[in-house]
Amino acid sequence: MKAFNRLDLNLLRIFDLLMNEGSVSKVAEHINLSQSTVSHALSRLRQQLGNELFIPVRGGMMPTDQAKRMAPSIRHALMLMEQAVHNGPVFNSTNSKQSFRIAGSDYVELILLPPLLKRFKETAPHISIQLEELNNSDYLRELENEKLDLVIGFEKPDHLSHRLLNKVFLQESMVVISAKPLGSQGKPLQAKKLEQLSFIYPSNWGHTQSLMEQWCEKNRIKRQLGITVSGFVAIPELMKQLDMVAALPRAIALYYEKYFRFFWYSLADEQLCYRHKLAWHPLRENDPALSWLCSQIIEVGENLK
Question: What range(s) does the HTH lysR-type domain occupy (predicted)?
Answer without folding.
Answer: 7-64
